[in-house]
Amino acid sequence: MSSAAAATGWSPPPAAVDCVDAEGRATELRPLALSRPHPRLRLGALLAPSDASAAAVASLAAALVGRLAMGPACDLLGPRRASGVASLVCALALALAAVYASSPAGFVALRFCAGLSLSNFVAN
């Protein structure tokens, strides 16, 4: 360790230490680390792999539907109003889905609402 590092008390992070439990989930969060582990996003107790796939498909389908609907909405209302209406509707839908998402079907609905919110990129 250099004298400057010794004076500040800084030490380099340990090299590639896997901080995972028996199920492969991260036990500590290191957001700036580029090495493993990165925490899993799938909830092991709640979602089966097929449910996670269904949620991804629902998000993509909603993004496609929302973007196709946003084009005519921008022509009819103008981009600012259409974007504002889409933001309000999606925020309300996401809030309601987040409150009631206690099952895999609720999580799929939540991802569908999140996918709809991606239609705002059309207005910009």
Polypeptide structure, described:
The chain has five helices and no strands. The protein is mostly helical. It folds into two domains: 1-40, no CATH class; 49-123. Helix 2 packs parallel to helix 4 and helix 3 (79-100) packs antiparallel against helix 4 (104-116). It starts with a helix and ends with a helix.
Rounded mean pLDDT is 74
What's the helix count?
Answer: 5
Q: How far is it from the N-terminal to the C-terminal residue, by CA?
A: 51 Å
User: Helix content range of the residues, please?
Assistant: 55-70%
Number of domains: 2
Structural class: mainly alpha
Question: Low-confidence stretches at least 5 residues in length (pLDDT < 50)?
Answer: 10-17
Secondary-structure element series: HHHHH
Write down how many β-strands occur, each being a DSSP E stretch of 2 or more residues.
0
% residues in beta strands: under 5%
Q: Give the overall shape, derived from the CA principal axes.
A: elongated
Task: Note the main sheet.
Answer: none
Alpha carbon gyration radius: 21 Å
